[in-house]
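Form 7-S
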Amino acid sequence: MPTGGTTTPFAARSRYRQLLDAARQYAPIRTAIVHPCDAVSLLSAMEAQTAGLIVPVLVGPKPKIVKAAADAGCNLKDVEIVDVPHSHAAAERAVALGQECKVEALMKGALHTDELMASVVDKAGGLRTERRMSHVFALDVPHYSKPLFITDAAVNIAPDLDSKRDIIQNAIDLAHALGIAAPKVAILAAVETVSAKMQSTLDAAALCKMADRRQIVGGILDGPLAFDNAISSEAALSKGIVSAVAGQADILLVPDLEAGNMLVKQLVYLAGAQAAGIVLGARLPIILTSRADGDEARLASCAIAQLLVRRREGTAQLELE
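Output:
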């Protein structure tokens, strides 16, 4: 396994605690919790508030939110509630709050991801930018020496070359916000050679050339690489692969959503990895949580959003100065 170190908030053992410690130096971010009408989503928001990560703004039907709070034993005193009639209206209102700069992030509650994202990507009233939106999983894998980012395993089903360019750039930007100055990006395929019969290998070759021409900036790219060669120096050496990325990848670009989804779940359920996730490429970060996520994963996702927002602000201030 790779032995290199890193200076990110995840940088050694206890990466989860280090991530929270890194976030504590910043003010919490105002976060619209979209339709928090069950105990799980409401508790997640309140725990993130207690941890100093977010200031929750609960957007949904007030009677349902109050009932969920009673069921969960939550005290909603001094917590802002934006009363809307149903989940679709909650998604629309939360997005509007983002447009109005009244919140700095969105967090999915008890509604389907598609329902939330439909409002986010709406051409007339959404939070779109020129960048393709994508999801990044940040994983703490026990037997890997540093954080591992996998993209995209939740939003883009079968991305084309241009979409993959944006997906990589989103992940690189996130890595920068978390303290990784030059993240190493492995573009995954089943083989390490370019083959006209495998589109993922053609895309990998094109993406590497795009990085050479500065169409992708801020990271070091290589591919195609099989998974073992991306994360194991020994595996790469055994195949004679000479690469600045092989065996020490920070970011794994998967060929499609199905491959990414299976890879992440295998690492979580078989390797004991801790996963946090966030959607990038919109005007503000979107925290997507699953009912299957544990408390640590939910808090880690909020911490990543907080670090992303606050460190972007710091960069913008430096640029203005």
